[in-house]
Design brief:
This protein has about 290 residues and is mainly α. It has helices at about 1-25, 30-45, 60-80, 90-95, 95-110, 115-130, 140-145, 150-175, 175-195, 200-215, 215-240, 240-250, 250-260, 270-285.
């Protein structure tokens, strides 16, 4: 069953990226794209509150849930902000750091001590993810990248997101994935609304105009992100957070295959190498 959860999550991620790309290419602001997914899910989730056994939820749940809302909101803000200061082609390799950060925090917060085989498998996936995203043109030198504002904004956003993933697992263990999903949206949405309130008036006007013109893409974004988040929580319930985030990197393999077969992309050798490395690392984690 856990393999099914992972596969659904892995396949949902490329579709989420696809709709995000479609919307940002249509000049919708990246922050509004994130805000819409949160807020629409929060509104849809309100009737579900009637069916949740909230009275049985321990007080710790609310403390952790509010913390997740703050971390996710500001983490997403930093990730979006980094778009303005950094080439999009450099984002993939940096994402490979997220499972490592989550693993370190998971040891101290969740007491998730990885086995030697699992740790090796996770690091192999991270290595494969790096190779997977190495192809393409590189502008400037690596040292300049480390000194750039965009790099540190991205790393800060990834760190907050990784810590949030660790804490939301505590939320799942205190309740269940559906309850965690509902309150993830309901509590996280106001923080993003507060951040979005500082956007320029003309940006807001354009965003709401484009929302009307891009209904199908926004609907696709909502469905893909909701499925992705729900099955992320199902996976966290059964698998270490560090392992989970490493396994989720397999969605990059799907992007590579889609680009090769449907878009006839070139410069595929390094990406295929990274894909095979990631699959090998996955087998180390999943095969007992």
């Amino acid at each position: 069953m856990i393999l099914i959860f992972i596969l659904i999550r892995v396949f949902a991620s490329p579709f989420s990226n696809f709709f995000q790309k479609k919307l940002t290419n249509s000049q919708v602001s990246p922050l509004f794209v994130v805000l819409f997914a949160y807020t629409f899910l929060a509104l849809i989730s309100l009737p579900v509150l009637w069916f949740l056994e909230i009275r049985n939820i321990p007080n710790q749940f609310w403390m952790y849930m509010i913390l997740v809302g703050v971390l996710d909101a500001f983490g997403n803000f930093l990730l979006v902000k980094s778009l303005q200061n950094m080439d999009l082609s450099l984002f993939g390799p940096l994402n490979a750091f997220k499972p490592v950060i989550a693993l370190l925090f998971g040891i101290f917060i969740l007491y998730e001590i990885p086995s030697v085989k699992g740790l090796i498998g996770m690091l192999i996936i991270v290595l494969g993810s790096y190779f997977l995203n190495m192809s393409g043109e590189r502008n400037g030198n690596t040292f300049a990248l480390y000194l750039s504002k965009g790099f540190w904004l991205r790393i800060s956003g990834i760190t907050l997101s990784a810590v949030s993933a660790v804490i939301i697992k505590k939320v799942v263990l205190l309740s269940n994935p559906l309850t965690a999903l509902v309150f993830w949206a309901i509590i996280g949405s106001p923080f993003l609304i507060l951040i979005y309130a500082f956007q320029k008036k003309e940006i807001k006007q354009k965003d709401f105009y484009l929302m009307s013109a891009q209904k199908l893409n926004f609907l696709g974004l909502f469905l893909s992100i909701t499925i992705m988040q729900l099955f992320t929580l199902f996976t966290f319930q059964k698998v270490f957070v560090g392992y989970s985030l490493a396994l989720f990197q397999l969605s990059s393999v799907i992007n590579v295959l889609m680009g090769f077969f449907f878009l006839k992309e070139k410069d595929i050798k390094m990406r295929l190498l990274g894909s095979f490395i990631m699959i090998f690392g996955t087998l180390l984690i999943l095969i007992k």
